[in-house]
Amino acid sequence: MSKKVIVQKYGGTSVADVKRIQNVARRVVKTKRQGNKVVVVVSALGDTTDNLIDLAHKITYNPSDRELDMLISTGEQVSCALLAMAIHKLGEDAISFTGAQVGIITDTSYTKARIIDINAKRILDELKDNRIVIVAGFQGITLNQDITTLGRGGSNLTAVAIARVVKADICEMCTDVEGVFTADPRIVPDARKIDKISYEEMFELASLGSQILQPRSIEFAMKFNVPIHVRSSFSNKMGTIISKEVKAMEDTVVSGVAINKNEAKVTICDVPDKPGLAAKIFKDLAKADINVDMIVQNVSRTGATDVSFTVPTSDLNKTIKVAKETSGTIGAGDVTVDNNIAKVSIVGIGMRSHSGVAADMFETLARKKINIEMISTSEIKISCVVKKELGAEAVKALHAKFKLSKKRA
Ligand code: ASP
Ligand code: MG
Hints:
Carbamate kinase, 8-stranded mixed β-sheet, globular, binds magnesium ion
């Protein structure tokens, strides 16, 4: 009998209704009966979190973040209790906990709190008593006993953090897809499931728009070396293992293509070309807690330059307000917005040791007559902003160019 400590996280679609909760219960019980110690982290049923947020916005456009967390943390409390009952029905002992009950202590950044500490004792004691432990994902509590949530998709972070403190052998992310794919299969039908990928690449893919895992959870897993297995809740097939980079991974120049249609481009026109003004613009945006992604400053011949940058569309209104104010103070011109963009990216650790990848990407887009509006690169990724309606075509062309549908050795 294998004697492993396994953390299993089930996402919202995996526990969307009674039948699915019963399916999860059977999987958990099976894992337990194979001789393992099991901790389960659950998300809220189906679209519960979205629905709760909509409900809040029916009361007010601008709900207090503390009250929002109070509200949306309830979703996970429902699913963990129901799962415990379903497991009891199958004859196993299980006990459910809120984040607060297992001492998931966070800072006070409501709606995107950071975990400061987890008190593993309660979980370990229950495991010792041979129980299945179920923890409500996505939530924690501040030192002042206020409930917080960990950002959308935050159950992933709960799972990874718990996997670390209970020293789990594996953290299984059970979801509605079979693993991480080389591209979104809805865009590229011959996209391939990736067997193994490094934390770095997965972090980039997740940050760049692949919706499988919350980027913060991967960052955490990378920092503490928590092995992750992304797999389907509805089959027993192997999914994708996310782990430390190993030598063989370097041979893969490009591992995946991602697309993000949730950014907008903002341009501040006619910024005087003087030292300190870029600093002022981006400091003002940072103060407003706006996450700026790509930045381009056009060459100036006339003494003024246009500064363009992208932000998540969810921050767009706030950004326009801040950018207009800053533009006024520094004597710049109009603020314009382009919502009609897609950011297409290729990711691979092999880029570190192979040259010419950027040229290949640009050439592929040029052949398709797709104009590149912005470019940004890091050691292991290249991103291009293109017109939104050309995004899918760009992804398909790049997937083909880098031969991603072919299985690698
Ligand atoms: N229920 C939360 C959300 O939908 C957390 C999660 O699913 O991980 O974002
Ligand atoms: Mg959810």
